[in-house]
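Retry 2 of 3 after timeout on previous attempt. Resubmitting structure tokens to design endpoint.
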């Protein structure tokens, strides 16, 4: 594992270290050969290979070598810098070397994982290593700048993830602003009557947490609001929040709901979004009795006063607290926070995209979320499972994996649908006594007490048919099928095609990223995975961190997950935010740009190009020079590339560093 060449060549003394990463790298790359090759390169004072360079012994070896061999530069060829650049910078510092006299070569993602030809891959690693050794000679000693952290936190999204994160942070003494785009917090969980696998009442466990948010002295709750703009950097974000008008003063309304009774529309007439369109509401409304905040709002699309200005306004008349204000306007508020937790949740798959299942064509076909409202005591039918035609179902078919595990729609398993299908099967049977059939591909019940819940359903007499449903139609072939919906499925256990007549079909729709996920991720400068869910920094080691420092993710916005996992993840995101804030300061990467004032012509090309608004003109007038706020600069390099006079330089990306790296790759 060791090679030791004590030569110097008048160049800075470089230590070169190549990692086997078990067989991750060594399975494809001949690391001993690369090490021997590096030993012969100019300036390399020592070269070593080691099984796990990131391990404690690996790091200690580097630190000890720096002292013993008086190393002046360090190159590590291993995995991605995203994972271990910081690890090796720290090892360099422990050895007494400035951490920026270091260059990392990614030979795992860029070589061993993407090539099968051992010889060619080893040759490529030699090229990359040679380039890094050439480049690192030109590195300069740099220092990280320390800036204080704002102790306040923003939580975006008021589902169970956002609620739990906000309460955890607020209980730890932090000031939290919780921004929710709907009129109430609660998210999807507020729609449920019971939750699997324990069948405990969703409202009984959710509403105490919702009211704790509302009454917590450390939480500012902004519902009906959305984040418009985010500026700044870790520890110091400036956020603009759009607050939509409710036309009702939140501080005055007590949610007595007399205004709803007094509305000139005597009967509810408009689609009730909260009840998934199964009920109607008036222009002045509240989503559900436990809505938080318990404040009514007026819908500008349907309110006569807001549309025409010609209404008796009996809602406002009856309000003795004078809470109505039809002149209310949208407003933008600005807050400063040190950390952000994104908990914007998911949406369910649009069942209309699979015409075979008849959603929207047959009134007897429902989505799972609609059935959550039907079985709910506070839903549009007060918990009575009654069909759109007023009848009660005698047989119900629940179709799993609608918009999940399917090449035509979404490939991923949505993780909760098997379990919520079991829950709905139980509740429908309990409410109606109907025969219930579950049509599944594979039954996935991997959580705590989940398999036992499945067993319970089997013992309750719910039928399970293994196979993907081909279609749902009303084409009767027998008198028994007359006037009913027919589910056609290949029963893969029995080995034949079955036709099962039912009165109601429930489509267990999968979980998808929110429709505006791309917009939101751009606003917060984070990434999305290929499916469109927010991207975590590392799936195992940093599952709630993002690649933007100080922005954390939790719950259904990161991937489909059940409530226990969501709550656990929200707690983790809150803990990460706390760790950041309680440190009191952050260290900024020094890969920033700076301007050689004497070379700057003051042309202003760089100013509008900077995506972080970090560049301004020093003063007005003809001789004004551009200046860069290094705290705002994120080191993207746009200004340095665009500067016509070449007066903008970027740390770690100087011309010397870049050209020597290119020459290093090309010159054998
Ligand atoms: C039909 C069905 C039944 C289920 N039943 C169960 C069950 O019984 N047990 C169980 O453990 N799990 C169940 N689940 C899963 C459960 O719904 C999720 O685990 C949970 O809702 C995830 O919570 P969340 O806060 O991450 O997301 P959500 O509940 O989706 O909440 C996200 C919140 O963020 C808000 N938001 C979105 N975008 C923005 C924005 N840009 N700005 C501000 N706010 C925003 C939304 O309005 C919403 O309030 C079920 C899921 C479905 C679809």
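Retry 2 succeeded. Sequence:
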């Amino acid at each position: 594992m060791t090679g030791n060449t004590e030569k110097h060549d008048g160049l800075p003394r470089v230590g070169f270290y190549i990692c086997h990463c078990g067989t991750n790298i060594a399975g494809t790359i001949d690391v001993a050969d690369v090490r021997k090759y590096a030993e012969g390169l100019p300036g390399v004072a020592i070269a070593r290979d080691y099984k796990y360079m990131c391990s404690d012994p690996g790091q200690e070896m580097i630190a000890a070598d720096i002292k013993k061999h008086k190393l002046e530069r360090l190159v590590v060829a291993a995995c991605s810098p995203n994972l271990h650049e910081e690890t090796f910078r720290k090892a360099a510092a422990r050895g007494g070397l400035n951490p920026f006299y270091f260059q990392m070569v990614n030979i795992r993602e860029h070589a061993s994982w993407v090539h099968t030809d051992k010889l060619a891959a080893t040759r490529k690693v030699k090229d990359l290593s040679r380039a890094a050794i050439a480049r690192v000679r030109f590195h300069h000693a740099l220092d990280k700048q320390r800036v204080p952290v704002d102790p306040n936190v923003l939580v975006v999204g008021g589902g169970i993830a956002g609620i739990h994160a906000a309460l955890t942070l607020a209980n730890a003494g932090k000031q939290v602003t919780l921004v929710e785009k709907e009129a109430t917090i609660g998210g999807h969980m507020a729609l449920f009557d019971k939750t699997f696998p324990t069948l405990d009442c969703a409202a009984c466990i959710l509403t105490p947490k919702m009211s704790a948010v509302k009454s917590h002295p450390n939480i500012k709750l902004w519902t009906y609001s959305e984040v418009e703009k985010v500026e700044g950097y870790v520890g110091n974000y400036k956020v603009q929040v759009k607050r939509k008008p409710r036309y009702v003063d939140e501080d005055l309304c007590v949610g007595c709901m007399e205004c709803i009774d007094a509305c000139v529309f005597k009967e509810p007439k408009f689609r009730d979004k909260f009840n998934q369109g199964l009920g109607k509401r008036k222009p002045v409304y509240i989503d559900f009795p436990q809505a938080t905040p318990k404040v009514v709002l007026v819908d500008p699309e349907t309110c006569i006063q807001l549309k025409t200005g010609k209404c008796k306004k009996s809602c406002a008349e009856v309000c003795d607290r004078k809470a109505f204000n039809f002149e209310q306007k949208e407003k933008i508020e600005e807050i400063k926070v040190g950390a952000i937790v994104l908990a914007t949740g998911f949406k369910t798959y649009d069942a209309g995209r699979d015409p075979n299942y008849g959603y929207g064509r047959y009134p007897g076909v429902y989505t799972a979320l609609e059935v959550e409202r039907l079985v709910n005591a506070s839903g549009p039918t007060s918990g009575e499972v009654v069909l759109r035609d007023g009848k009660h179902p005698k047989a119900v078919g629940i179709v799993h994996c609608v918009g999940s595990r399917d090449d035509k729609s979404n490939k991923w398993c949505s993780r909760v649908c098997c379990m919520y299908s079991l829950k709905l099967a139980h509740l429908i049977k309990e409410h109606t006594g109907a025969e219930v059939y579950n049509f599944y591909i594979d039954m996935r019940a991997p959580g705590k007490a989940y398999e036992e819940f499945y067993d319970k359903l089997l013992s309750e007499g719910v039928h399970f048919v293994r196979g993907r449903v081909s279609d749902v139609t009303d084409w009767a072939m027998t008198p028994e099928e007359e006037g009913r919906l027919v589910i056609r499925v290949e029963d893969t256990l029995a080995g034949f095609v079955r036709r099962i007549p039912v009165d109601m079909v429930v489509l267990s729709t999968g979980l998808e990223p929110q429709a505006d996920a791309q917009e939101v991720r751009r606003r917060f400068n984070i990434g999305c995975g290929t499916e469109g869910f927010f991207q975590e920094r590392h799936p195992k080691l940093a599952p709630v961190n993002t690649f933007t420092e100080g922005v954390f993710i939790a719950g259904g916005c990161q991937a489909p997950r059940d409530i226990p996992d969501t709550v656990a993840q929200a707690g983790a995101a809150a803990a990460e935010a706390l760790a950041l804030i309680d440190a009191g300061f952050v260290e900024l990467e020094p890969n920033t740009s700076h301007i050689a004032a004497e070379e700057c012509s003051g042309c202003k090309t760089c100013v509008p190009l900077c995506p972080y608004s970090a560049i301004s003109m020093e003063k007005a007038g003809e001789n004004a020079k551009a200046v860069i706020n290094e705290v705002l600069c994120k080191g993207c390099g746009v200004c340095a590339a665009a500067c016509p006079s070449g007066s903008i330089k970027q740390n770690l990306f100087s011309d010397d560093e870049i050209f020597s790296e290119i020459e290093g790759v090309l010159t054998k």
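Attempt log closed. The chain has 19 helices and 35 strands.
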